[in-house]
Amino acid sequence: ETGVTQSPTHxxxxxxxxxxxxxxxxxxxxxxxxYQQALGQGPQFIFQYYREEENGRGNFPPRFSxxxxxxxxxELNVNALELDDSAxxxxxxxxxxxxxxxxxxxxxxxxV
Amino acid sequence: xxxxxxxxxxxxxxxxxxxxxxCSYSVGISALHWLQQHPGGGIVSLFMLSSGKKKHGRLIAxxxxxEKHSSLHITASHPRDSAVYICAVRSSRLTFGEGTQLTVxx
Lengths: 112, 106
Fold this sequence. Notes:
- The complex is a heterodimer.
- Chain A is mainly beta.
- Chain A has strands at 5-7, 10-13, 19-24, 31-37, 44-50, 53-57, 64-68, 74-78, 87-94, 102-103, 107-111.
- Chain A contains no helices and 11 strands.
- Chain A starts with a strand and ends with a strand.
- In chain B, the strands form 2 sheets. In chain B, strands 2, 4, 5, 9, 10 and 11 form a 6-stranded mixed β-sheet that branches. Chain B has a 5-stranded antiparallel β-sheet with strand order 1-3-8-7-6, with no helix packed on it.
- Chains A and B meet through β4, β5, β9 and β10 of A and β4, β5, β9 and β10 of B.
């Protein structure tokens, strides 16, 4: 049983660029959620996908978008990067509200 | 006011001490998670609770649904326990506390 894998692990982008982060969910999990964690703070919910449909969104602008694929892996896309987008981006997968989440190790994004 | 409040924010202990981290929340939940985050970012799920108490090794987690409060206890703390401990509550989504930075000195 594999865990949650995120890629890349680290990334440096320039302000105004676009970035795509990837997450492969744990085998058997059909729900993927994404979180942004700024330095020294707790993670903030970005959005969640269930069976390829977005079914929840946090307080993030539309330039944060996502996809979930038929194999339940997921992408987070951020357009028009801003300096404040520099953070650790975490992905978590789950299968049912009765069970817990499995987290990836995160992608550290730096916007310069 | 945050929906999930943790205390303390920072905690320094000597090896062997008994440690308690507290979490209070203000929303209805289906479960509460205690998570551990080491430098570098990876998060490990320690417990998922919806009632009562759970124990795993030196870690104990309790929850009082009526009081909307949970505690994480570490017995006989060790320097390898040094990490950020995060409380997260599950409703339609996960909402996280700010985390407690624990440092255990030898």
